[in-house]
Amino acid sequence: MKKLLFLAALPVFIGLTSFIAPVNDRPIVIVIHAGAGNMDRSKMSAENIKIVTDKLNEAMDVGHKILENGGSSTDAVEATLNVMENAGIFDAGKGAIFNQDGKVELDASIMQGVDLKAGSVAAVMTIKNPISAARAVMDHTKHVMLVARGAEEFAKSQGLQIVDNSYFYTDGAMNDWKNWKAREDSIRKSGHNSIEEKPNHFGTCGVVALDKQGNIAAGTSTGGVSFKKPGRVGDSPIIGAGTYADNTSCAVSCTGTGEYFIRLGVAKDIASMVLYKGYSLQKALATALDKVKNLGGEGGIISLDKNGNFAIDFTTNAMNRAYIDKNGKRDVQIFRN
Amino acid sequence: MKKLLFLAALPVFIGLTSFIAPVNDRPIVIVIHAGAGNMDRSKMSAENIKIVTDKLNEAMDVGHKILENGGSSTDAVEATLNVMENAGIFDAGKGAIFNQDGKVELDASIMQGVDLKAGSVAAVMTIKNPISAARAVMDHTKHVMLVARGAEEFAKSQGLQIVDNSYFYTDGAMNDWKNWKAREDSIRKSGHNSIEEKPNHFGTCGVVALDKQGNIAAGTSTGGVSFKKPGRVGDSPIIGAGTYADNTSCAVSCTGTGEYFIRLGVAKDIASMVLYKGYSLQKALATALDKVKNLGGEGGIISLDKNGNFAIDFTTNAMNRAYIDKNGKRDVQIFRN
Lengths: 337, 337
Prior knowledge:
Chain A is an alpha+beta fold and 337 residues long. Chain A has a single domain, classed as Glutamine Phosphoribosylpyrophosphate, subunit 1, domain 1 (4-Layer Sandwich), CATH 3.60.20. Chain A is 40% helix and 22% strand. Chain A has 9 helices and 13 strands. The first copy, chain A, has helices at 2-25, 46-68, 73-86, 130-140, 148-157, 171-189, 258-264, 266-277, 281-295, and strands at residues 29-37, 106-112, 118-124, 145-147, 205-210, 216-222, 232-233, 243-245, 251-256, 299-304, 310-314, 318-324, 330-335. Chain A has an 8-stranded mixed beta sheet. Chain A has a 4-stranded antiparallel beta sheet with strand order 8-9-10-11. In chain A, strand 5 and strand 6 (216-222) form a beta hairpin. The longest helix of chain A is centred in the first third of the chain and has 24 residues, at 2-25. The interface between A and B is large, with 45 and 45 residues. Strand 4 (145-147) of chain A pairs antiparallel with strand 7 of chain B, so a sheet runs across the interface.
């Protein structure tokens, strides 16, 4: 009787196995960026190129491993961004640029395409990993966005690591701030109101990922633009501007002059062009960047759909970017080819 | 010779007049809301209905007068919202609901469809008229959004009126907070983490307007949802979520459970449905509200295009709303007809 039961159960077991097995064959993809800007190739040392390239590879591998092991795209996005936030070489977490007051103020958001859940924090000064705080807002509150002190208090209550603002400081960001401050002071002396110069480098970090469950997610983490006013919020923590994810269209993360991306609702616009106009990701990204350019802005975008198709585009000279596609092919680039 | 010159100039003068004259015939429209909610008609006194109705008329007339005099839709939106922020009976400016800490935290945004310029403030506690601060961010910074202390410092530097947080307090908001606090305390005692109850009334204020230059604008001002976490930002100050304006599609202002409106990027989505799918405003609003409902949310939306067509829709029992259309027809409503 026991043997009979076992034999009767066998097809069910085989059935289950054959149902589960294809999941492992399903495509996984990760695409990341660490900002678009007008870096001069001739002025970037081979050593610095290696530092950036190595860190992009390291961050991407952390996320890809999670996807390989069957983890969620949301987990992959968060973990990859954690590596970039801790790196000290990008404009996110440690290494972020300073605001006018000489302080670091950070923004981040995350969104998952399966249920449109999203979380965001902005203008936070003491949360070591803003993307994890955004994740906690998504997972543990009925809200989507918390800012400033309220976000910091919440992150603390969630047991996230709290640091002094000076933790984020790097020599690079300090020198950048000193240069801006000197220019601002000299402009003010000349009778003008304020500096109107455009920042020439953006180091915002972003990730889009596809997991074995067929779900996409997107996340973005940043320190914003150089010499921003205290309290300035860019597109990165704005769901629909710098970050969006919807399984029915695509996952998007943007970098660039955030104000233009907010005014155009770029991330949501790309999802709408894909869904409503049937645009390919390539066409949607190019169209969105054209609109940004027409308003006077520039930047870059990464995007990914649930079938593993992805697109990367930018209007600046360079964009820190990397991917591992559904065939396992890997690429890391900084400058235009 | 002088007579000849005069005669020669006459057709030019007549030509100019006939060029200018039609501007005065061009349609002007204003549509406003002061929140959608599940108010019980039988429980609202005739006196209270009159107070709300009178204030909606007063606010709308201020904006309409500006439009009649050839002022911009942006000016009309700001001035109308100023009246509502000062009224003490809506969830915007004086009269706004309290957060968990028993403080008022305000959000507002404004956008103009002619050039997609936008301004926004969020989580501000001392700015008497948040919509004017949002306007100042748009007009006098290179940023779109400022939050918390940074936004307050900026508003002060612009000469906007700064008040103590207690200025915003009303008995209604205080009683609402006491009820929430009592329920929260009792829920915590019972071992649950936090109150999960949905607020049953939203009093967010919003305006869309069309001026004689053919330009549309939108603005939204709010105190957010009852018993929100400190630092919580809803859809109202998010360009693309609670507010959007683009002359090529429409101007939009939303009210409701803001988190759902952010996750769907409702205001931008409506503009995209109009632009990319050719939907009428009515169809775009109904489709957007269906999406909100499917996620578990509810609320209301007003929208207007540059030809003076407009739409109002809501999924709640009631929505404070009023309009003066291009023929001068006026209507003010609270409940469903």
